[in-house]
């Protein structure tokens, strides 16, 4: 069953999914937080050093000869984090120092996050408007009366160009500045104040609208319900729940907002796939299928794999995946803590009734034990046996256009979905550039002894993966409309379908 899926057999998480997972597994906040600025400085220093030690002992990147920059980046992050730690005075500056440390590692599957509970929380503030990045600049998405006009473009603040302001105030503490998708998902936070004491909030900003530039004095205040709603809209528009809708006859819209589904969402995925398999003849006659990944930041790659197999055919998907993954190796970092975790994961899945998956993970755990006993840093998965020649052939090929809406924060298992979908020439990517992915996967959360923070520790590394560390997907049809509503995205899809009907080519191809 797992031939051609071996390299995709993962539980992979993007930043938000990691945070959700961490909350679900988290220990309670420490009973006693530091009481003085000096104690907070000592705490930040000690916890960053502890995170570096845990990373060096367990993270596959430290011993990855194909990525010598990882260890150098970790040391650079350590030095920068400790410099920030020397300026820490309270919970919020502690959190900012941790964030500054993470950024310098330059890997979404490494670093640490604070575990301070309510102590680190700061009342989110805004200036009365919400912005979005749309490829060539930052634009006003929504605004209260008296604020910059919706659709106007930020030019500068306090004499600093818009791009530099975003680099200084956003990417110095979160995200990965070199990835185009991170600008689409992160740059908008330049006009959100979460209490970071290491940045200077903009006060006077210049916006351009219809050729006219106007200066606005910003009045920062606690964000209200309207602002919260606009903030959510700017991040995913009206993305729907898991399921299929038909916005117009013969066009199916498939919503996949998460690959880290709860119980109800898992049931919805299963029902959707079963319905597709049962009514595949109807799908084969559609004008197009739209797969909406807005708000999706990763999870388990099995959900997109199952959908792809139902749409294109199980054996076709497995054949394409096997070809794409040819030569890829999976190396498990056989540290004592990683080995213990993988063994415990196999036991937990067995108790929960996932016997087939548990059995496979138990094989990995035993291989890690053997590598550990032999003094080897990695257990390398053996190649799977050849597929069963008697596999049931697929039905008619699915050749209708498949438009995949890609958000800027698409990462990890969301990128795995794109790896599979783009094996087929009828797939068209629509929306934004994606974020990039680390080759380090199957993340666990390692708690610090202090209880103040936890460390992100992947257990394995993909070697010779076709999609390189840091490589993104670019859309064939980039959508720069300020509002990313379903109607706006459908309009882009319909325009491409009209071009096809007129004998034209898909935009960007």
Automatic annotation (TrEMBL):
Origin superkingdom:
Bacteria
Q: Which Pfam families match?
A: Peptidase_S41
Q: Tail specific protease domain spans which residues? A: 255-466
The cross-references to PROSITE patterns, in alphabetical order and at most eight, read: PROKAR_LIPOPROTEIN
Could you list this entry's UniProt keywords, alphabetically sorted. Signal
| Cleaved signal peptide residues | 1-31
Coiled-coil spans are: none
Q: Which SUPFAM superfamilies match?
A: ClpP/crotonase
Q: What is this protein called?
A: S41 family peptidase
Originating organism: Massilia suwonensis
């Amino acid at each position: 069953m797992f031939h051609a899926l071996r390299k995709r057999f993962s539980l992979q998480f993007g930043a938000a999914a990691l945070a959700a997972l961490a909350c679900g597994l988290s220990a309670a906040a420490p009973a006693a937080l530091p009481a003085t600025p000096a104690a907070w400085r000592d705490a930040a220093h000690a916890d960053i050093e502890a995170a570096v030690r845990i990373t060096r002992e367990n993270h596959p990147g430290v011993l990855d000869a194909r990525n010598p920059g990882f260890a150098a980046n970790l040391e650079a992050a350590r030095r920068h984090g400790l410099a920030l730690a020397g300026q820490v005075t309270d919970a919020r500056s502690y959190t900012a120092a941790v964030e500054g440390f993470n950024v310098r590692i330059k890997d979404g599957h490494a670093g640490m996050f604070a575990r301070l509970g309510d102590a680190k929380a700061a009342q989110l503030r805004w200036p009365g408007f919400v912005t979005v990045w749309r490829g060539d600049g930052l634009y006003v998405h929504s605004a209260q009366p008296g604020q910059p006009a919706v659709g106007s473009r930020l030019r500068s603040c306090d004499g600093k160009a818009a791009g530099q302001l975003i680099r200084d105030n956003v990417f110095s503490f979160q995200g990965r500045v070199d990835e185009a998708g991170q600008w689409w998902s992160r740059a908008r936070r330049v006009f959100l104040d979460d209490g970071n004491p290491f940045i200077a909030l903009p006060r006077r900003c210049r916006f351009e609208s219809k050729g006219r530039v106007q200066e606005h004095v910003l009045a920062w205040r606690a964000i209200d319900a309207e602002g919260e709603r606009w903030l959510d809209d700017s991040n995913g528009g009206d993305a729907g729940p898991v399921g299929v809708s038909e916005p117009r006859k013969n066009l199916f819209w498939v919503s996949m907002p998460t690959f880290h589904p709860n119980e109800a969402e898992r049931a919805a995925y299963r029902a959707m796939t079963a319905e597709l398999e049962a009514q595949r003849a109807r799908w084969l006659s559609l004008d197009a299928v739209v797969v909406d990944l807005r708000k999706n930041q990763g999870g388990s790659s099995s959900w997109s794999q199952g959908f792809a197999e139902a749409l294109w055919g199980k054996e076709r998907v497995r054949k394409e995946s096997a070809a794409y993954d040819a030569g890829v190796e999976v190396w498990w970092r056989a540290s004592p803590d990683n080995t213990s975790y993988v063994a415990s994961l196999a036991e937990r899945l067995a108790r929960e009734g996932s016997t087939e998956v548990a059995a496979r993970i138990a094989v990995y755990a035993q291989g890690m034990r053997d590598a550990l006993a032999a003094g080897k840093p990695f257990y390398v998965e053996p190649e799977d046996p050849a597929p069963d020649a008697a596999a049931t052939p697929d039905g008619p090929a699915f050749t209708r256009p498949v438009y995949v809406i890609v958000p800027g924060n698409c990462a990890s298992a969301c990128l795995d979905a794109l790896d599979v979908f783009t094996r087929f020439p009828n797939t068209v990517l629509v929306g934004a550039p994606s974020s990039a992915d680390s080759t380090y996967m199957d993340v666990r959360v390692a708690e610090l002894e202090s209880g103040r923070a936890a460390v992100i520790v992947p257990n394995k590394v993909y070697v010779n993966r076709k999609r390189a560390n840091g490589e993104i997907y670019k859309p064939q049809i980039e959508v720069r409309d300020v509002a990313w509503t379903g109607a706006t995205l459908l309009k882009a899809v319909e325009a491409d379908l009209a071009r096809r009907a007129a004998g034209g080519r898909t935009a960007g191809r």
